[in-house]
Write a structure and sequence with these properties.
It contains 4 helices and 7 strands. By secondary structure, the chain is α+β, with helices and mostly antiparallel strands. The protein has a single domain, classed as 3-Layer(aba) Sandwich (Aminopeptidase), CATH 3.40.630.30. Strands 1-2-3-4-5-7-6 form a 7-stranded mixed sheet. Strand 2 (50-55) and strand 3 (61-69) form a beta hairpin. The structure holds coenzyme A (COA).
Length: 162
Amino acid sequence: MEIRVATQEDWPGLWPIIEEVVRQGETYCWPVDATEEQCRAWWMGKAGGTVFVAVDDDGAVAGTAELHPNQPAAGSHVANAGFMVASHASGRGLGRALATHVIEAAAGQGFTAMQFNAVVSTNVHAIQLWQSLGFEVLTVIPQAFNHPVHGLVGLNVMHRVL
Ligand SMILES: CC(C)(COP(=O)(O)OP(=O)(O)OC[C@H]1O[C@@H](n2cnc3c(N)ncnc32)[C@H](O)[C@@H]1OP(=O)(O)O)[C@@H](O)C(=O)NCCC(=O)NCCS
């Protein structure tokens, strides 16, 4: 498995992974019926952003991450990032490898901290993974996410210094 910076040519490999996560509606505050172009702009088009792919030995994209400033201008030294691993590749360490890579890349780009604004409280494996990588939960915003199965649940704000 290789992790590298994505190019626009990687989009056909990224889209099935992103589409699955978006259609489930359980982990990101995005409309479940978002179009491919909306998702592409959201993942690939953020100002100052870098997109990464985790590529299997056979060349297939199995996971992706995106890194960007959490806020513009005076807040741009704090990074934000998103992560998605194909469900068929989950539990093999890709998420951990991607996050480790992105944390190092963010520090290398000069970011001084990383903040996650909206980790759904039911996404316990992700929360545990981020905690194991040094993130702490700063607060949980109550009933901030309308989960398709569990209804109104919290959103965790998570943070670590780089
Ligand atoms: C969260 C996500 C990126 C994790 O990716 P992953 O490749 O499955 O994660 P890893 O294989 O690196 O596993 C990370 C840890 O979680 C645990 N884990 C992951 N999925 C698990 C599951 N279904 N059951 C039990 N443990 C699980 C692993 O055991 C591992 O712990 P360890 O490293 O201490 O052994 C992936 O599940 C995903 O894309 N989810 C949908 C989108 C999402 O939630 N993104 C994050 C938003 S904050």
